[in-house]
Amino acid sequence: MSEKIPATIITGFLGAGKTTLIRHVLANANGRKLALIINEFGDVGVDGEILKACGNDSCGEEDIIELANGCICCTVADDFVPTMTKLLTRADKPDHIIIETSGLALPQPLVRAFNWPDIKSQVTVDGVLTVVDGKALSEGRFADDEAALAAQRAEDPNLDHENPIEELFEDQLNAADMVILNKSDLLSEDERRATTEELKGLLRPATRLVPAQNGVVDLSVLLGVNGRAEDDMHNRLSHHEMEGEEQHDHDDFVTFIVELPGQQDRATLLRAVERTIAAHDILRIKGFADVAGSASRLLLQAVGPRLSSYFDRSWQDGEPRATRLVVIGEKHMDRKAIEASLTG
Ligand SMILES: [Zn+2]
Asked: Hey, which residues does 130 pair with through a beta bridge?
């Protein structure tokens, strides 16, 4: 029994801004140790070189692993699973794993790979983030450079699936637990509204859209709050403190903690979390619960429609058993209603 390593899958077409977003994550990791798995068969080496050149302490060259032998979803068993297994046998395990897909990959086979026993016991899918090019979409295109996207497709003879681009796009949105609407600064208010409406029609109901410029999104939103912050979370109410980031030029998100009284029934609590996320402008919920009939604490995390929970360790002697949930959401969210909804 131990805390599983969260893994974030980042999808999105060529040019949507995945690499820029990951560079932002590396630059703001703030001590979180990251491992990156990059799949870029169509444009070999470029992303990897850019990211390695970041020279960030939280993610050294040995933590950036490139899968260049084909499309990640077509080579899951031969390439991705062995790579993950190897990563998990390292003495120095990462705090978080980020997987950047080529953009042509189907997200579902990759998500399913996390059910392999060796992986499932140690890793949990934190979320599937899909990055979209807001500007291109508002102009009726899937990518800024559709010719380059077509070339990337043509370049790989090993791509086992020949789904039309429209279908790939819809798959990536349907698999998304959170969508990053990148380049939103290039959109007028009207364009932004129209693009958001169009995208919402393709998303599962609880999936939230997060606007971004140059892939800049608060790390507590992208990856969740990290373990150290959670240990001390009842003292730390603002996301500024939780992340410890020095620079914050935006206040689009709010973090607060809900403490639930008494012991919880696991199934009832999980249903309350799902219902609350679907009904409010919440991006994430994470926390621990005191569950009736268990000597262990239940860790639960939710991103949009994705909810996972497992017992991570026993309650320790002298440790107060409690249920505390960190809620991260848009600044206008209705805190009182959310508290009431979680309380049941
Ligand atoms: Zn594939």
From this structure: 11, 179
